[in-house]
Amino acid sequence: MNDNPRLNILISGFTDNVGKDPDNLKLSTDRALAVVKYLLASRQIAKGRLQYKGFGATNPIVDNKTEQGRALNRRTELTVISN
Description:
Layout: E1 8-14, H1 21-42, E2 50-54, H2 67-73, E3 75-82
Parallel strand pairs: 1-2
Antiparallel strand pairs: 1-3
């Protein structure tokens, strides 16, 4: 992002399917926000270039039937939204 000052990203947070939907939505939002805070503090990225959103347990990348699957679904993703 430092090499491309016009790059803007969306940080998306996700959880596994354990727990209540409202709790997972808050957890996933907090997870995405933690990445934003890290980038703002350590990489000195301008706040206006970063957006974040929590998606809870929606959009799993693997099945949630095993601990390994649930661990993979607890994640953040970065998506370029403008360049």
